[in-house]
Every structure is written in C-alpha cells, then in structure tokens.
Give the backbone structure.
Amino acid sequence: MTNRTKPDNPPQLSNEQLFQILDSLGAYVYLKDKDYRYSYVNQLVAELFHRPSEEIIGLTDEDLFGQETAENLVRNADSLVVNQGKELEAEEVNYIPEQDKYRTYLSVKKPLLDQQGSVEGLIGISTDISRYKEIERQIRLSEQKLNTVLDNVGAHIYIRDLNSNFLYVNKLTADLFGKQYDEIVGHPLEEVIGPDAAEEFRQLDNELFAKQDKVEGVETFPGEDGNLFYYWTVKVPLYDDEGNINSFIGISSDITAQKKLEVELAESNARLEEKIQEITHLQTTLWEQATRDPLTQLHNRRYFNDYARKEISRIKRNHQPMALLMIDADHFKKVNDELGHDMGDQALIHLADIMVSHCRESDIVCRFGGEEFLVMMPGANLDSATARAEEIRKTYQATSPKILAGNESTISAGVALWSSHMTTLEDLTKAADQALYTAKKNGRNRVEIAANSDYHI
C-alpha cells in the first residue's frame, strides 16, 4: 500500500460543495434539533415531500409524515439519540402522504454535539430499501411456489451430493421408489434403489463429473412388473462458495408413453432450472448484503447475533468453553479529525485484516459498529483468547504507522469467557464490554479480562 502524507494546506470544501456532495449521495440526509425540528435536509428529502428545502426547515415529522409515523420515529429512535446520545442503525417504516404508501428505510442516526460535548440534535442518513424488502417478500413467495411446483410438476426431482447421498426428493420421486422421504434423504443411491438400478443412474452422473457441466439423456428404471420405464433426465451441477461442484440436481420426466413430448419437456425443465438459479442468485445476493459490513467485509452485527446465539446453544449442549473479544480503536475520533475519514477507513480495514489473520477459521470476526469489533472464539479458553487479543494489539500498534502516514494508533480489548452465571448472548457481550471499559479506564492500549471469567457450565 502506498504511504500518503497529509498536505500542508489541504483543500477546504465550501458550503456549496458540501451541499452538492450531500445531494449526490443517493440517500436522505437530514439534521434535527433537540425539539426534533428539521434544521437541514438534502435535495432528496425535499423531492420526497415535493417542497423546497427551506419550507421543511423548522417542521417536525408530524408535519411531514403524520402523527402516527412521527410518534414511532421519536419513540423508537430519535429520542434515544437526542436524550441518551446513542448511535442507532435500524429499519424504519414510514408513511409518505405525498405517495400515499409506506416505505421502508435503513436509517443511521447519530447525536450532534456542541463544543461542550452536549447533544444539540441529531444527524440522520436514510436509504430507501423498500425495493429490497419487496425482493425478500418475492423470494419467500417464490420459495413457497417452488415447493408447490416441485411436488406437482409431473417430474421426478432430486438432489444428490458427490457421494451419491440424497439431499432432497420431491413427492413423485419418493412415490417412484416406494419409500418415505426420511427413508431416502441422507441415504446413498445404492441403498435406496439397489446396486443394479444405481448403475444405470451413474452413467449420467459420471458424465456430469467429467464435463463439470449440465448433462441430459435417457435413463431407465424397472417397474414392479419388471417392465422398464424410460425417463428423460437433466442433471445440473450445484456449486459451493469456492466454485467447486458439491452436489447436483436431477430432473427426470417419464417419457415411456410420451416420447413425442420430448422437446416440450426439455424446455420445461430448462425453465425450471433457470428459476432455481434465479432464486439461488437472489438469495445469495440478499444474504451478502444483509450480513456483511461494506467497508471491512467482516460480518456485521446482524450476522453475529444470529451466529452467536446458535453457538451459545451448542456449547451449552456440549459443555465447551467459548471466549469473546471486544476490541475498540483508541482515540479514533482524533484519527478521523486530524488525518481524515478516508485514512480512518483504511485504518479500520487494516485492523480487520489483522484480526482475520490472527484468528482461526472457526472464529467469527464482526464489525459491531463504528470502530468497535467483536471476535467470537468457540472452544477457546481464557489463556488462548487473551494471548490472541495481545497478538492483535501488538501487531496493530506496530504496523499502524504504515497506514496512518507515520502516526501510531492503538487498540484496547476486553476478554470475557462464557460462564455458568450467564444465560444469554447479552450477558457475555456485557462482560466483554465491561472489560473493555476497564482497559480504556486504565490507560488504553491494553487487554483486560472480565471479572468472573471462569469456565463453569
């Protein structure tokens, strides 16, 4: 990475340039005072309400959205920011009178502080995610429809892994094999239909593995009376996150008495394949957007909360230890103020890379918010977790000048171990947070261990 030094006379943005930037963000940007009256809105907000921005200044959400929406905004978000100084990121559903419809927004709200550090209002940045929420709804609906289609499509549909174990069969396939769903899924092909019939199916399987691509052809299966039934089969590879084939889907249509419909059946299967790929792509895209921090590419708080609660349930069952590291960049506001937010972003990315490089594949590294990070360490005891935190701290301190143009930056960390007096994820997080607070109180650039971090399940 190329080192950059701060220029002697950095260019200053005029108010007009700053307003132009805020108008071009593609998000709704606004300021409110302590009485929740708007003191600034960008052009996108003005366009939303079909009013000049100067007519919005001084109004409240009740003037713009109506009483119900305004009360929800103040109660659920704005009052927490203004009265408690909290920083919030949450979805908000607002009724827009000008459009006569509800819209969903992902809003980030932070307190505005005066020179004495007192809250004098808030700044909000809201992104309209109504389209993405609609996509989520459509995906759920599509999945329901897909399951209905797969059970009533008139084709035998199944998924098998590379060891030929069944991962899924639709109802028609289960009926063909004369077995219940649970007697098929999780069992190898030979066990389900016998070695002789399995050999017939393996011909197209082997062709798919050799080509690493979709294959199609005729397969036969013996009926109860000994007669062969003919099926036109399409097999399509399915891939893991690294792009390697880990399974395949098979779609088999009975053509014994319907060979004349061969072309139409193939087209129907192709459309079905396209629909499956479309849904898979949408699911992957939405999942990545919902669980990744866009700056550091670490998992975000939403993913962490879901994963951590499952992991806590697992360690309770298996009586295993688990540690949590809470890491915070020291004096990071000073880094942003003196070196600029762009360099501050680079420092956060660098810290994220260090944490990932010092953690195991089983550890979960998360950007919890701002310059605060969490590392969930399943199976780790207190000594190994503390040592890992020290490694991260020392490495970041030693390498930070390369990122910050010669300026040193440090981190503080709190270590907590899951113990018998804890019942929820919030208990563990609170213990790590208290340890982090102790590290800050004791001078920063240090690792502190939470009180009562004993291991007793």
User: Anything to note?
Assistant: The first strand starts at residue 28 and ends at 33. Residues 206 and 227 are 25 Å apart (CA to CA).
